[in-house]
Structure formats: C-alpha cells, structure tokens
Q: What sequence folds into this?
C-alpha cells in the first residue's frame, strides 16, 4: 500500500520542473538516521524502571552518547529519535546537552527530532509509524539507542547505493561484525545466536534464523530455495550490531506486514522467507575490522565496558573526553582518572575508570571496575569487575565483586555483594549485610509496576532500603513466548551468563505446550490475554467439547511449535472466511494469503493439510448442522457446498491440501479430515453425525477426483484412524462408503462413471 | 576510496568548504570533535588549526586586541585540549597569538607617529610609579618622549601598555575626553587593518606549513651522500618527499623499516614511494621490523619524521621509531629527524607523551580471536617519545640544527607570554 504511495510520490516529483529534481538530488545527499531509543525489553530491569536503557552509563557516559557520536562521525545530518518509555528523560537529556541540543548552533546534526508513538508496542510499530510520516527521503541508517561502534560507514553506504542503483529491490544492508569461531565474550553474551545464511560472493542474505540454548531443536532448517543460489555460507560467528542501512522501501515492507515486531526475528526472517513474494534482496556486510556492538543486555554491557577499557572502541575511550565537561586522563596502571579524584595512599586502583569527585580511601583495592562521579569508597574496600555509578557510597571493608551498583546507592560497612548482584537506584544496604550469591540478588526500591517497594529488612538489614526485585508474573508471561523458564531472554537478564538452574534437556518438548492446543499462543506480548481467549473460542467453533478434543489434539501435533499454531489459526480463519464469503466466488486471494502465511511461518506440509482439513470441515459442519448457525443442509449437500461453491477451491484442496498424487498423501488428508471432525475443531457435532459428514465429504472428494479410492482405502486401513472412542465412531460411519468403494474397485471404470452421475443427481 | 565521492564521513576538506555557510562556533566545534575522534590527526592538525583560527579572526566580534587575543586563546585552548597528543595545535595557536601581538605593536608604532595627542601614553606615565610628570613636553614632541618611555623600568609597561594604547577609553579616567571620538573611529580603521594583517599573517603560516616539506627536501642532497645506506623508519609524507628529492640528486640505497604486516587486499605499503625511487634509480630494501637491528651496522644514517619536537630536544614520533633511534645510537650512526619549525613546541613532554598514546589493540590481536581478547592485556602504543640524546640532527625547513640551538628557534617563533597559553584557562 504505502509502497504504491511512495511510487506515486516519485511520479509526482518527476512531473514537476527539473529544478525540483535537482533539489531532490540534493536532498539525497543528506544522510538520515533513525535511532530506536526503546527496545521494548526488560533485560536491564530493575535499572530501567527509572532510567531508559540508552541513558544508562556505560563507562560513565550515557549509552546514547556513543550512538549519537557514531552517527556524527559518519556525517549523519538528520536524526530522528523514536522514544517509547521514559521519553521525557531522553528528551530532557538531549535538550540539556550542549552538543546535541537541536537548537544549539554547534550541534553536528542539521536536524534532530523526537518522535513519540503513544500506542507503540514494538519496534515494528515505530517503523510503521515512520513510514506514515514520510520524512525519510533517501537511504537512511537505522540504529538502536544502545549502539557502540567506531565503524566508518562510507564504504558500506557507497556499496549499498551501488547495489540499489543496479537493482531497485536491493533495499537493505545489515552491518555485521565477525567475531571468529573461537569462544568469545561478546559471542557468549548474546544468549541468542543469530544464524545468517549468506552468499559470500555477493553478500546477499539468504536466510535468517535464531538459535538459543533453551530451544528444543538444536538445528536450523535450511530453506530449500537457499540451495538454488549456488555457494552459500552459514554463519553463527557474527555479532549483529543492529546497524541497518535501509531505503524507504524497507518501511513499506514493515507496513505491509502489520504483525512484524522485531527487526530481526520477524522482519529479517520474514522478508527473506517471502523473497519470492516481495522480491526484495537483503544484503549483509560482514566487517573484519572496527568495533560494533549493542549494549543490549547486561552481559553485553559488561563486555562493551571491558572493550572500552581495552580501547577496542577507539576513539570512543574515556580519555577522548567526547562528552562535554569530562576530563579523563590516562594515568599509570591502565587507569583513567578525572580531575579532583582522591586516591589515598595505600589504596590500589588498576585498570579502572574513576569519575571526578570520587574518593578512594586507604587500603582499598579497585580493579577492572568503573566508578562514577562523587562516589565515596571507604577503607579496605575490595571492588572487582564492578560498575559503580554516580554518587554511591561504599562503606569500609565492603566487598563488591562483578556487580552493578546504581546511582545514589549505599552499601554499608562490611557488606558483601557477590557476583552478579544488581543494586538499583537509592537502595541502601545496612552494615554487615551479605547478599545471597545463588541466585544473585536484584534489589530495587521500586516494584515492577513502578510502586515503591516495601523494604525487606531480612535482605537489606535493619535501616536499609530496598527489596528483592521480582518480575511481575503476568508481565513475564506476556513477554515471552514459551513460558518463563523457556524464554531465552532469561539468559540475558542477569549480569553473568549462566545456564545453571535452567532445564535445557531437549526431551521435554511438550512441557511448554499450552493447555488448549488450538489457542493462539501469545507471541511476544502483542495480544493480551483477553484477546487470546476470544481467539481460542473462535477457533474451536464456540467452545466445543474441549475435554475429548484435547487429548486427540495433543497427539495430533505433538511436535508442532508455537509458530505453527499461529499459522494454523490464521490459516483456518482465512480459509474459512473465504469459504463463507457469499459475495464473491473467487478463491484465489484466499489461496494467495494462505501461501503467504505458509511461507512466513515455515509451515510443514502436515500443518497445511491440517489447516485445510479443519477449514473445509468447519465450513461443511456449519452448513450441515443447524446448531452451528448454518442452514442445516443434508450431509452430502453440505459437503458438496463446502467444497465446490468456490471456484478453485477443489483445485486448491487437490494441490495444497493433499499435495500430491501419492496414496499416502491422500490417506493423510483423509485422516486430517477425520481428526478435524472428531476433535471438534470443525464445530460442535455428535460423533455419529460427524461421521456422516465425513463420509459425505470423502465421497464428494472422491467424485471430484481429489481422493482416489486407493487413498481412501489406505486411510481405512491406517491404524491411526481408530485411535480413541470418537475417532472410531466417526470412522464407523464411513464403512458404507468404503465397502461401496471396495466393490467398485472390483468392477470396471464405467461403473464408476455411473456412480459419479448418481452423485450429481444427488446434488 | 575513489568510489565514495559522495562520502559522508566528515573530513578536513569538507570542514574548510563549510566555513562560509556555517556559524563560527559550529565549525570550531566540528573541528574539536574531528580531533577528538581522531578523524584529523598528524600534520593535518596544524593546517586545520591555522584555518580555523583564521576564521576566528575574520568572523568573531572584537573591538580591541585584548579581546581578540582572549578569543584566540580560549578557542586555541579548546582545540589543544581536544587532542592533547598533537602539540602542533598549540604551536599554531602560539604562533597566531604572537602574530597578533606583533601586528598590534606595529600598529601602535604607526599610530604613535601619526597621533599628536598620544593620550594613552600620558595615562600610562601618570600611572607608572616614578614616571617623570612633565606632560606639556610630551605633547610637543613624541619623538623625544620615546626614550623616556623605553627607559621606564617597570615591566608593567611591556605587558600592558601596548593593549591599553588601542583599547577604548579605559575606566582609569582619561583626562582628555574629547580625544575619544577620533580615537574610536581610528580604532575602527585599526581593527580593520589589524584584522586583515593578522589574516594575512595566518595565511603566511599556512604557506609555511605547506611549504615546509619542500624546504626540508631542499636539504636532501646535503644530508644524503652518494652510496649511502639510508634507513627510513615508517616514512611520513615529509620523509617521502625528502627521499624522492634526494633520489633525484644522489644514488643511495634505502632500507624501509617498520612496515605493517601487509594486508593482502590493500596495496603493499609505500608502493608509490618505492616506484618513484626505483624510477630515479634508487634501490629499496624492505625490512621486517625484527630484522632492523641486524642492518644497523651497514646503515649510514637513520631518518624519520617527528610529530613534534619538545624544548628539551625530545621527539614525539610514531611508535617504533624509538627502537630504530636507539639501535642507531648504539652503533654511533647519525639519527636525522625531519621536523619543520612549526613542530617545535615550547613545552616539556608530559607524562602522557612519554608513556605514549594508546591506540586500539586490533593491530596486534584480531577482535575475532576470542581467547586472546579475553586473556591478554594489549597495549598498542601509537606514539613514541625519543629522548634528546638519541637525536643528532634536527633538519628543519630553516636548515639543519643541533639540540643546542633549539632554544633560539623557539625564541624566534614564540612569545614568552603565549607559551603557557592553555594553562591560563585550565585553572578557571
């Protein structure tokens, strides 16, 4: 839709005077960038309760400074910042900074706009909004607000432009940093491993998938079309730094797919999958030099901080003092120290960053840590690998190991803060408190819903402040797709990467199967619970007998994953609506939609068959049984109506539903029909009547040459058709048909034709 | 780099082009961040600083010399602090400050001769302790008065007087109020004149910067003798030009040391230089850096370019040069440092300089090499400090110098008032 709009706009532009074209060309020269300053994730909780992720200090500099400076160093002139939660904080920060304030004359950007989207729930919503705004004039850089990178994009931009000029469909370039095959801290910190299938000669992306240690299948299915490209590489050694170079067409793609939420998992995967439909070509630029990473979770935060200290991010290192008012100097022992830092004699600070106004008293050791401004570190304190933000107080004799302590927190004398602890803003630990090490504590003064938390004195000691931060239950559920213990995000929400305590056996596939198999499971928190229930009602045709259906349904697709469930529901809906539609008799659009869904979800043949079977039987059941709201036709008529009322429907069933000429495929389809009727998926029907309908449908299909007698007989012989009480009853009703078929089999084809004629008379 | 003619990455050239359509503050800020991000480094810093200071003089509002000096000093300080390891920035700022002082002094002299009133001189005299009071005398003959002025012992005169001369009616209460009107119009003219003179002066500094390499190359045939074996460690542009010039006059053998491990995709290092030398009939030998010491006995002299020369004679150089200098020193081979005069810095090397600037570790360890990244602490120094005793000849664009004559070069080029210009703001 919006793509057409774009084309229209271009045509109008061409129609105008050539001078205007000249101006357009000039506009083309302006490099634009879009910063997504909200990630819709809660991996930095509890810190992000109070501060947005992009303002968290990374080596004492708010993360967004790195991003903006990266854009400035690449000569970006116009920046649009999409803010979600905490937008006021971000705007205040930018407007308060002398360098970035859009009103100031020294800003390196000609334009810096904030865009707020009130009802955005995902990055996809942002980008769809961006498409509507039509502020993007040419190629633009899409980055996240937590990017740290020193890459110079000029060469990549030039390549992208060349590709786009050669082919309008080459609209997207992902910038990736190779990190080698050996274990690497950045790679380890990812939790989710992106799998890129790339054509090494052209750099074209062929497939994208994600893997994580908690998933049940430890393999990636290659799309067969990948093989048609000749040479390709499957790479998991890439760090996806979230820098995308896009043409405005990309936004149109987002708009076309209203359900895409994540730029990688949904968008990249989906667009590559649907390559044949959208014709777009996406490219990957794999870099072997330069630094790029996203502080997308606490482990990455940890990693990037260390990288900054080791100067991989050059020139984004503390002693560049890129932020106004910073006065870091590199001094001995690999330290970066600001003005007015007091490190008393007898204390030892190594490989650390210490902000201005901080005091480190005698006898303390600080190593590989980052300490903010105006902190007070007492005597004999030990701080290792930790991140201590501004204005904190650490009492005498305390020990802090590999933890994050946020602004204005107080750690009492003699406290022990073990590895992985997260201490949020304004928390106070009383003297002598030892925090638990397994699991590491997350302490905040706010609860998940932004209310002040009740102080837990057992945890923080008498006179302390703060409580264990716990993620609210419902939020967790809406946020992940596979139940709390199965979401890979759990790997990323702590500072230390650990698989400990997580059940990662592959056998327990069904442990996260939802109660009702046909319930559309919530995908990434898009729908709330209310919607998903209504959907399940809808799908099961007004709340049929779940009890009996459930066991069947479970066996029906024990191995199917959630995405296939989503596919099933969408597909059944789509087909059913098309069959029901009384206005037109065209089935092609429904078919197209179905194929699109299938590609998007990578649905298996079995899933397709099942969906088609359910859709058609539901329509037939509707027509057949008055209690389902239909006219209450006879079984044969209902079956005939369902299958033949739409042009192309029969062909569709033959080609897609059955999927081939083979007997086994026909048997599978017959089985799928039986199951759909028996399980109640098609609608509320007594088993006996369901059987009647099945017989009618099979007969109809037989007469339409969709199913051959061998297929139906093979189904009859199949043991699976007799599993369970209902199935048996349903099957029994078809005995007449089967016997008739067996007889017909013995006779000649001429007889068959007669039968066909009989059928038609019936209709 | 050819394909990206529409490159977006900011460069010095783009910055200079944008001078006309952007406000002064914005251009200064852009330069500061270019320096901070190391997008301008090395010899370009001097050029960039001179260009930007020219803009400061041309565009900023000032009505007297003090204001101009203050403006140049504050902007210069910001530039110098943006890249603490590029001392040439400070040098150029000092040169410009000195230039302004000189031009102002010249103007003053001209004014003195022309003006019959000389009210300001009168002021100073009345302020200065122990100054002779006969005012009528002064008025009649300025020429006679001059020796009196010069004979004044107070240093106050030297540092303050020349600015008061130009400043508008100081609050000290000038007895002759009627003089203010002609003064201010004269001032306008003088501001104008001063502005253009200072800009011309900066233009000259820019010329000097751009010509320095050629001038140094002019001494090539004196320094390099036929049949010499010359070792050049990581030749900079200055050194390359010097060698090419030498090749046109002399037959010698060049040993290139300190080469980076060649990137298979890129052109081999110094290919262009080697081609031109080969065309002139000079043989070049590439040395792997660890083979350097073995060749030193055969070498006649070692040449490298300096990033800066400190007042003690120490050099700031690209990393690795110090090894070459030390090796040469051990074998009593002359070490020649090519350093244009604008690189002479009237400062002592700071601790940071002596320790060397750290670059990113990627030239030693690939980021893709996970275990190494995790386990090793890699310090990649990109600059070296060479102590003065290792350097034999400083070949400047004014000719070869030894360490003992550096002080006079510094004295010629910088004014004592400006040497610590950045410290004055540091405290505030």
A:
């Amino acid at each position: 839709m919006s793509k057409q709009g774009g084309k229209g706009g271009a045509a109008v532009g061409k129609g105008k005077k050539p001078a205007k074209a000249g101006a357009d060309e000039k506009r083309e020269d302006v490099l634009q960038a879009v910063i997504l300053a909200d990630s819709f994730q809660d991996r930095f909780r509890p810190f992000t309760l109070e501060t947005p992720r992009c303002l968290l200090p990374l080596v004492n500099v708010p993360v967004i400074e790195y991003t903006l400076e990266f854009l400035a160093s690449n000569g970006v002139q116009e920046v649009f910042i999409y803010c979600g939660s905490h937008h006021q904080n971000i705007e205040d920060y930018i407007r308060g900074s002398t360098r970035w304030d859009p009103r100031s004359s020294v800003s390196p950007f000609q334009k810096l706009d904030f865009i707020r989207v009130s009802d955005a729930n995902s990055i996809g919503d942002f980008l769809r909004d961006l498409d509507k705004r039509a502020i993007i004039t040419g190629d633009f850089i899409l980055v996240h607000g937590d990017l740290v990178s020193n890459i110079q994009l000029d060469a990549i931009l030039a390549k992208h432009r060349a590709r786009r000029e050669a082919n309008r469909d080459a609209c997207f370039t992902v910038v990736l940093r190779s990190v080698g095959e050996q274990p690497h801290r950045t790679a380890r910190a990812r939790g989710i491993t992106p799998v890129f299938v790339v054509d090494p000669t052209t750099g074209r992306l062929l497939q994208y998938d994600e893997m994580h240690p908690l998933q049940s299948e430890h393999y990636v299915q290659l799309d067969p079309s990948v093989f048609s490209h000749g040479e390709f590489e499957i790479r998991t050694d890439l760090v996806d730094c979230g820098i995308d170079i896009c043409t405005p067409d990309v936004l149109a793609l987002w708009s076309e797919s209203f359900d895409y939420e994540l730029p990688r998992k949904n968008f990249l995967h989906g667009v590559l999958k649907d390559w044949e439909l959208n014709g777009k070509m996406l490219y990957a630029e794999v870099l072997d030099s330069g630094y790029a990473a996203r502080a997308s979770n606490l482990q990455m935060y940890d990693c990037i901080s260390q990288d900054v200290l080791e100067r991989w991010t050059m020139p984004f290192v503390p002693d560049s003092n890129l932020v106004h008012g910073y006065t870091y100097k590199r001094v001995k022992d690999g330290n970066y120290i600001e003005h007015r830092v007091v490190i008393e004699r007898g204390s030892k600070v190594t490989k650390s960053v210490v902000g201005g106004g901080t005091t480190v008293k005698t006898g303390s050791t600080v190593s590989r840590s980052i300490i903010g401004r105006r902190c007070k570190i007492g005597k004999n304190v030990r701080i290792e690998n930790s991140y201590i933000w501004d204005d904190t107080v650490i009492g005498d004799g305390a020990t802090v190991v590999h933890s994050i302590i946020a602004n204005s927190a107080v750690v009492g004398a003699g406290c022990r803060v073990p590895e992985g602890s997260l201490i949020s803003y304004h928390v106070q630990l009383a003297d002598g408190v030892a925090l638990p090490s397994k699991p590491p504590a997350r302490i905040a003064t706010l609860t998940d819903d932004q209310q002040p938390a009740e102080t837990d004195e057992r945890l923080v000691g008498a006179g302390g402040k703060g409580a264990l931060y716990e993620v609210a239950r419902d939020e967790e559920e809406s946020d992940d797709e596979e139940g709390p213990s199965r979401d890979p995000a759990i790997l990323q929400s702590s500072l230390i990467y650990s698989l400990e305590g997580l059940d990662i056996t592959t056998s327990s596939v069904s442990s996260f199967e939802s109660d009702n198999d046909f319930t559309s499971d919530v995908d990434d928190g898009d729908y709330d619970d209310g919607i998903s229930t209504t959907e399940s009602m809808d799908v099961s045709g007004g709340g049929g007998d779940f009890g009996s259906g459930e066991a069947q349904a479970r066996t029906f697709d024990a191995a199917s994953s959630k995405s296939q469930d989503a596919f099933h529901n969408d597909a059944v809906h789509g087909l059913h609506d098309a069959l029901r539609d009384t206005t037109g008799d065209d089935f092609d659009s429904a078919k197209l939609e179905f194929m699109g869904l299938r590609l998007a979800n990578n649905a298996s043949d079995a899933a397709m068959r099942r969906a088609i079977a359910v859709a058609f039987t539901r329509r037939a059941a509707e027509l057949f049984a008055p209690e389902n709201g239909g006219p209450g036709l006879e079984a044969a008529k209902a079956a005939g109506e369902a299958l033949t009322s739409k042009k192309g429907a029969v062909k569709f069933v033959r080609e897609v539903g059955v999927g081939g000429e083979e007997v086994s495929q026909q048997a599978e389809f017959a089985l799928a029909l039986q199951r759909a009727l028996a399980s109640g998926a098609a609608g509320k029907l007594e088993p006996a009547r369901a059987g009647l309908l099945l017989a009618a449908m099979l007969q109809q299909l037989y007469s339409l040459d969709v199913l051959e007698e061998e297929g139906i007989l093979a189904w009859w012989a199949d043991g699976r058709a007799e599993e369970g009480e209902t199935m048996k009853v349903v099957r029994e009703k078809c005995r007449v048909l089967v016997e008739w078929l067996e007889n017909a089999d013995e006779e000649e084809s001429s007889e068959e034709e007669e039968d066909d004629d009989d059928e038609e008379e019936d209709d | 780099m050819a394909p990206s003619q529409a490159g977006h990455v900011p460069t010095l050239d783009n910055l200079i082009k944008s001078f006309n359509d952007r406000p002064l503050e914005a251009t200064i800020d852009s330069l500061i961040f270019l320096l901070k991000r190391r997008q301008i480094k090395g010899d370009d810093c001097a050029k960039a600083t001179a260009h930007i200071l020219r803009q400061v003089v041309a565009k900023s509002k000032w009505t007297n010399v003090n204001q101009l000096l203050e403006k140049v000093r504050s902007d210069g300080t910001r530039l110098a602090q943006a890249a603490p390891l590029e001392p040439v920035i400070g040098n150029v700022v000092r040169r410009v400050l000195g230039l302004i002082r000189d031009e102002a002094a010249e103007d003053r002299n001209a004014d003195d001769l022309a003006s019959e009133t000389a009210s300001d001189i009168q002021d100073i005299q009345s302020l200065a302790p122990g100054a002779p009071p006969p005012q009528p005398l002064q008025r009649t003959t300025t020429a006679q008065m001059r020796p009196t002025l010069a004979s004044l012992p107070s240093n106050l005169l030297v540092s303050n007087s020349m600015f008061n001369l130009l400043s508008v009616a100081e609050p000290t209460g000038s007895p002759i109020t009627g003089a203010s009107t002609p003064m201010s119009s004269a001032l306008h003219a003088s501001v104008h004149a001063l502005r253009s003179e200072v800009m011309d002066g900066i233009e000259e500094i820019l010329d000097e910067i751009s010509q320095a390499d050629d001038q140094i190359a002019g001494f090539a045939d004196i320094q390099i003798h036929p049949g010499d074996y010359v070792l050049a460690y990581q030749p900079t542009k200055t050194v390359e030009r010097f060698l090419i010039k030498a090749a046109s006059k002399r037959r010698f053998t060049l040993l290139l040391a300190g080469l980076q491990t060649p990137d298979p995709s890129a052109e081999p290092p110094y290919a262009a230089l080697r081609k031109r030398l080969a065309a002139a009939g000079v043989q070049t030998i590439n040395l792997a850096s660890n083979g350097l010491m073995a060749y030193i006995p055969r070498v006649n002299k070692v040449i490298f370019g300096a990033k800066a020369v400190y007042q003690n004679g120490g050099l700031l150089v690209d990393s690795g040069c110090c090894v070459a200098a030390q090796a040469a020193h051990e074998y009593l081979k002359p070490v020649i440092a090519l350093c244009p005069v604008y690189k002479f810095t009237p400062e002592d090397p700071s601790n940071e300089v002596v320790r060397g600037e750290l670059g990113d570790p990627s030239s030693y360890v690939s980021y893709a090499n996970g275990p190494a990244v995790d386990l090793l602490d890699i310090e990649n120094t990109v600059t070296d400090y060479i102590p003065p005793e290792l350097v034999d000849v400083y070949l400047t664009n004014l000719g070869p110098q030894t360490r003992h004559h550096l002080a006079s070069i510094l004295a010629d080029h910088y004014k004592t008032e400006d040497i610590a210009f950045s410290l004055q703001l540091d405290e505030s």
The radius of gyration of chain A is 31 Å. Chain A touches chain B through 49 residues (CB under 8 Å).
